[in-house]
## 1
Amino acid sequence: MDRQNRAGVKFGGGGVLSGEREKLNRKERLRRIAMETIDLNKDPYFLRNHLGTYECKLCLTLHTTEGNYLAHTQGKRHQTNLARRAARDNQESAPTDDEPTKVEIKKTIKIGRPGYKVTKLTHPESGARGLTFELVYPEIAQGLRPRHRIMSAFEQKVGPKDPAFQYLVFAAEPYETVGFRIPNSTIDRGSLHSTWDEPSTLFTLTLYFAQDSA
Ligand SMILES: [Zn+2]
């Protein structure tokens, strides 16, 4: 009798627990799948906002972590909105006589941020500090070479206007322009060089800071 009772409690408790665990497992599984298959830098709907949280530009939802956003992309709501968007885009791209400018507009649609890697350097001879930026643009418009620009904290409009920093900005259509905040030390202009490897769509820029500015 007693034993039966305990078994019943145990079973009931286990049922609740495993239900929650299942939900967690499912979320974790979805997050992993998403991390393996989705490059957030190429996701046009992924947005890091200025509050340090993440937004889905498609569903207008807020997410506290990248993992949470990734799980969201596998969810029903996002998938449904994706399907709707795709259906609408297909309709829009069908040629119509009364809207001849549509094709032109489509060309300028931004497809997200490029993948990138930043590496800190120390010059082997002078000991000067430097940085290498590597950006990949697999979908870059044909014949285009990525451009870069150095902007002061006051010139740019995205980050805080902190005089301790300056910004290195990269642009290449149809990608979103990306900016990197770097120390506002004098850049040794002679050391700055960039390469564009068209076959691998890899843009590399290396610079060193002038030593007296360190
Ligand atoms: Zn979404």
Note: The longest helix spans residues 2-37.
## 2
Amino acid sequence: MSDIIEQLEWRYATKKFDRNKKLPQDKIDTLKQAFNLTATSFGLQTLSLIVVSNEDLKSALVPYSYNQKQVADASQLLVICIQDNISDLDVVDYYNNIKTTRNTPDEILKPYRNDLIKMIQKMTIEEQQQWSLNQAYIALGNLMTVCAIEEIDSCPMEGFIPEKYDDILNLKEKGLKSVLLLPVGYRAEDDMFADFKKVRKPLDETIIELN
Ligand SMILES: Cc1cc2nc3c(=O)[nH]c(=O)nc-3n(C[C@H](O)[C@H](O)[C@H](O)COP(=O)(O)O)c2cc1C
């Protein structure tokens, strides 16, 4: 079995974290970089990652996470957020970044920039948010795989009340909405879920090969 499959077998949705074991800073930095390196549609990156290390803040979020204690016990709580809307300026900033990073002449970038502005202007706010949300799931998957490779335990979570998180973390004033959680850290020795066998369909039910 390849190393990556072994690591994907090793990972599981951690229900009980060891609250005394903290991630070293280099692991947190790796997760930040991995989030930022996630591919996004057009490369626009309408996502942000909130890294919550503060113990009081993590504890305050438990009641708004259907009492799932992973949120408080994890070393860090990662909150994936989408922008509440996408403006022309987001697109302009993005193309300015390409211009300076790659030294691309403006005449080449201009038509692409204008087309993307038009495409985004045509979307309703709800469509913009759904578009960003699709990409938030890619970031979640990317982070989970990086966690598995780095032997960081994690638990993907949709089970929380986003409006409450947005209030507590002051996300509205940042123009953000919380959409997904990933508590990260180290499993508690007595997390019984660590020893459960993985439940998956047989490969021949999920893979269709057309030769
Ligand atoms: C998008 C998403 C949301 C999830 N939400 C929760 C959650 O709120 N709480 C939880 O304990 N597990 C949650 N899970 C974990 C799944 O139940 C778990 O990944 C699945 O049963 C497969 O088990 P494994 O990850 O241990 O292999 C979620 C998983 C995903 C992908």
Note: The chain has a mean pLDDT of 98.
